[in-house]
Amino acid sequence: PVSSGLASPLPYYVPCAIATCLTANLGLVLMILALIILCLMISTSSNNCQQYKMARLASLPMRLLFFILVLATIDLSDMLPSIGYFLTTVALLADFATGDLASLRNYSMNCQYRIISAHDKRMYVCWREGGFLWEDRFGSRGEVSEVISNLAIWEKQHHLIADIGDLICELRPLTHQDWENLRFRCIQTGEPVPYLALDYLDMRPAEPSRLGTTAKLATDMMLEDL
Q1: Measured between alpha carbons, how far is 124 from 159 in angstroms, rounded to an integer?
Q2: For residues 197-225, b (16+ Cβ closer than 10 Å) or e, as one string?
Q3: Which of 15, 59, 119, 192 could form a disulfide with 123 if both were Cys (CB 3.0 to 4.6 A apart)?
Q4: What are phi and psi of 144, to 5 degrees?
């Protein structure tokens, strides 16, 4: 729900390289080209769940050094170099604001999930480690029924995660207001409300032929009407 600030700096540094060419400073041009190559190597090598959080931190010293050099070599004597230095400074400040500062500001929301139990239909009950201010900032996420989670006590750190067509989603119970909104929508439009069924629960009475069997994951998922 918030920006993690962990995105690669390349979306800012590639346009910044073009602006740096306007400064007519060969040293800055060569340095930002080397910095782009460095950021690309870091992003590629840290593109995994164990190291991606450290990618921006690894390139921070070189990015700060380049920013200091830009400020130290500013030349406002001519119009074209002035525009180049202005655009370069704006791009660097935007990268710091949306990246490093955003990561520092939202660090309290940083978290990871530990799987407690796995269920049929690729559903998982997970425990959130970190993100302690989540509920204080965004409100309650509701409590999942014991029938679904197999947990007697549902705490605020619990999450119900589903892998739906290779898309990782958090499943939350509908609130009273959600049901009222669906009812109002159905009355206004006169059309049934579409929903995606995972067929996780079998509400039919137990039969001997189904006892001890495990449901298989359907290869195709279709929207149904409520």
Answers
A1: 8
A2: eeeeeeeeeeeeeeeeeeeeeeeeeeeee
A3: 119
A4: -80, 135
Terminal-to-terminal C-alpha distance of the chain: 28
3-state class (DSSP) for residue 102: helix
CA atoms of 217 and 133, how far apart (whole Å): 36
Q: Which amino acid is at 101?
A: L
From first to last of its 226 residues, the chain has per-residue pLDDT tens of 567 778 889 999 999 999 999 998 999 999 999 999 999 999 999 888 788 888 899 999 999 999 999 999 998 888 999 999 999 999 999 999 999 898 888 887 888 889 998 887 788 999 999 888 888 888 888 888 888 888 888 998 999 998 888 888 888 888 888 889 888 888 888 888 887 777 766 655 555 444 444 444 444 445 555 5
Tokens of residue 11, six digits: 């979306």
Residue 143: closest CA among 184, 109, 173: 173
DSSP 22-74: TTT-HHHHHHHHHHHHHHHHHHHHT-STTTGGGHHHHHHHHHHHHHHHHHHT-
The residue type found at 161 is I
User: What type of residue sits at position 180?
Assistant: E
- Cα separation, 65 vs 127, in Å, equals 40
Q: Give pTM, 2 decimals.
A: 0.66
**How many CA atoms within 13 Å lie on the side-chain side of 223?**
5
